[in-house]
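To whoever picks this up:

The parser on our side crashed when reading a file containing two proteins. I've narrowed it down to the boundary between the first structure block and the second sequence. Both blocks are reproduced below exactly, byte for byte. First block:
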Amino acid sequence: MKLKQVVVFCASSPGHESIFMESARMVGEVLVSRDIKLVYGGGRVGLMGAIADSVMANDGVVYGVIPKFLNSKEIGHRDITQLLEVDTMHERKAKMNLLCDGVIALPGGFGTMEELFEMLTWGQLGLHQKPIGLLNVDGFYDHLILFIEHMVKTGLLKKENQDMLLFANEIHELIDKMEAYKAPAVPKWLNLEQS
C-alpha cells in the first residue's frame, strides 16, 4: 500500500541532542520526496515544529490538528497548509486517525507514548489496519523495543500484536516496511475459549 498521508507523533520540545531536530527535519524532506502528506499535532515548537517546517520548506502538504486550549496559548503553527482546531485531546487523536493511512513515532515523551499506544491498541482491537512505525533515532527506542519483547516473553502480549509495531533506524527503511505491512486478519487480543 502506498502511503499518502501519515501521522507523525513526536515531542513538542527539541530534546538535548541535536540529532533529534536533525532527524525531524530529514523525515520532513523524505515525506515530501515520497509524495506523502504530513498530519501532526499542529504545534510550532520542538520536533513537531521542525518536521512541519521541513515539509513546508520542501513544498509539501501539512495538516495540523490542535485542541483549542493549546491553540489559545499561541503554540499552534500558522504557516502550514491547514490548521484544524478541535475541542479535546481525544477529538484530536480521532481526527488525526481519520486523516492518515499510517503512523510514525519519532522521539518524544508521555504524549508521544500515549498517542502511539492508543493507535496500537486500536489496531489490536481491529478498529483500524494501518501500519504503525517507530523511527529509532540514535537508539532512542531501544529500551521500549526490549520491553515489548518482555511483554511477549511473559505471556502478556501476543507475538502477532508485537509484530504490529514496525521499527527501523532509517526513515526510508521504515516507510518501506510500512508500505509492505499486512494487518492481522482477525484480532486475537482475547481468546474467549480459554476463559
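<<boundary where parser fails>>
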Amino acid sequence: MRDLLIALLGKPEGIILFQLLEATQFTIYLSLIAFLGGGIVGGLITLMRITPSKTSKRLAVSYIWLFQSTPLLMMLFLTGLGLPRLLGVDVNPWTAAVISLVIYASAYLSDVWRGAVESVPTGQWEGARSVGLGFLPTLRLVILPQAFRIALAPTVGFMVQIIKGTSLAYIIGFHDLMAIGKRWANAPVDGSEPFIIFPIMALIYFALCYPLTLWSRHLERRLGSINKREKVAVAAA
C-alpha cells in the first residue's frame, strides 16, 4: 500500500498519507479496548447504582461524580505522567491510555445504562416481585431486555466520544493518528504543512465517527417506532 500511495501521490504526500492511515489502526484499537473495558466496568457500576444497598449506591455515585468531573486530559496526565513520576514506576503509554479511557467511558456509560434501567416502568419491578422473582432474576429476565433497547442508540453514539477522546492520548506518547499527524505538521518538509495535514486528519476522524452517528440515529428512529407500535397494541388490547 505504501508503494501504491507513493506512486499515486508522490513524495512526501504518499508517505504522509500511508503513515496517517497506518496510525489510524491504533486509534481504532484503543477505541475498541476503551469501549469494551469501559462497558464491563460501567456495567458493574450500573449494577451497584441500582441495587437496594445504600452503600453500593453511594460508592457508584461517588465513582461517577469523580470521573465525570475530571477532564479526560487530566486523567491522561495523571496516569501517564503524574503517578509514574510520583511512584517511580514506568508506565507504558498504551497502559496509561487504556486505563484513562476505560475509566472515562465507564463513568459515562454507567450513567447512560442507569438511566435506561430507571426508564423501565416501576410496574415491571412490582409485577416480577408479585410472581416471586428476586432482584437479580427480575433484572435479568424482565428489566434488562427492555433497558437494552432503550440504551442501545446512546451507547453506539457514545462510541463517537471515545474515538474523539483518543486524540488526546498523544500527550503521553501514544502513537496514534493525532501523534503522527502533529509530527508531520511540525516537520520542516514541503507538503506537510498544517493546513494540509490537519484537514486530512479531520477527514479520517470523520470517516470513523460519521457511520456510528448514522447508526445511532437509525437505531433511535427504529426503536422509537417499535415502542410506538407496542403502545398502540397495548392500548388496543
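After patching the parser it read the second block fine. Confidence is low (pLDDT under 50) at residues 231-237. DSSP finds nine helices and no strands in the chain.
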